[in-house]
Design brief:
Layout: H1 17-20, E1 26-29, E2 32-35, E3 38-43, E4 47-52, E5 56-61, E6 66-71, E7 79-86, E8 90-96, E9 101-105, E10 118-122, E11 130-135, E12 141-146, E13 150-157, E14 162-170, E15 175-181, E16 184-189, E17 193-197, E18 202-206
Antiparallel strand pairs: 1-2, 3-4, 4-5, 5-6, 7-8, 8-9, 9-10, 11-12, 12-13, 13-14, 15-16, 16-17, 17-18
């Protein structure tokens, strides 16, 4: 018996004006007018996260049609990478041009979920622009990479409000992609791609020739 082909769904792609209109194009800082550039993007079924050049994270809830804003205290610097995760709690990791990394544990209206916004900081290890972030599926591990080749592992205990971070790998060129699954971290740099086995702390290169 021939299988029945699934129906084709046509979709129209258009600018998300409802999202873009909620983000200012300029801000006033003293006597200066500063143009706001959108610098990072990530999406899932619940949220659209947009990073900006003024250090503000714009988080749009797709179910409630609401925009919320989150920022770093202190220096107003460009956000270079954002990464969402939906597990028991909704989490978003944010990296900046100077190497700051923060995790926001979002508030949920669902029973038994987080009722207070909390922030965790990955302090003092990265010294340059964050170029990649990767979550473990349960939200207990976050890996961050920068443009100097450093990869940092952060262990999060959301119940205790603790974030412990350590340098686990250092490559000679910029990190361009991270992905984590089953105790293996995929790392792509400007020069090569490797598999980092987090339990054994061993490295296996994918392919033999360096990238040109």
């Amino acid at each position: 018996m021939a299988s029945v082909a699934s129906p084709v769904i046509f979709k129209e792609f258009c600018p998300l004006y409802y999202l873009l209109n909620a983000i200012p194009t300029k801000i006033q800082k003293g006597f200066r007018s500063i143009v706001v550039y959108l610098t990072a993007l990530d999406t899932n079924g619940d949220y659209i996260a947009v990073g900006s050049s003024i250090g503000m994270l714009y988080l749009y809830c797709r179910h409630l049609n609401q925009m919320k804003k989150y920022n770093f205290e202190g220096k107003c610097e460009s956000i270079t990478f954002v990464k969402l995760l939906s597990c028991f709690d909704d989490l978003v990791a944010v990296g900046t041009a100077s190497g700051r990394v923060a995790v926001f544990q979002l508030v949920s209206s669902l029973p038994g979920r987080n009722k207070q916004l909390r922030r965790f900081d990955v302090a003092g290890i990265h010294k340059s622009s964050i170029t990649a972030l990767a979550w473990s599926p349960n939200g207990m591990k976050l890996f961050s990479g920068d443009d100097k080749g450093k990869i940092v592992y952060s262990a999060l205990d959301l119940d205790q409000g603790i974030c412990n971070s350590s340098l686990v790998l250092e490559e000679p060129s910029s990190i361009v992609q991270l992905d984590y699954s089953q105790k293996v971290l995929l790392v792509s740099t400007l020069q090569r791609t490797i598999l980092f086995y987090t339990e054994e702390k061993s490295v296996k290169q994918v392919g033999t020739q360096p990238r040109k």
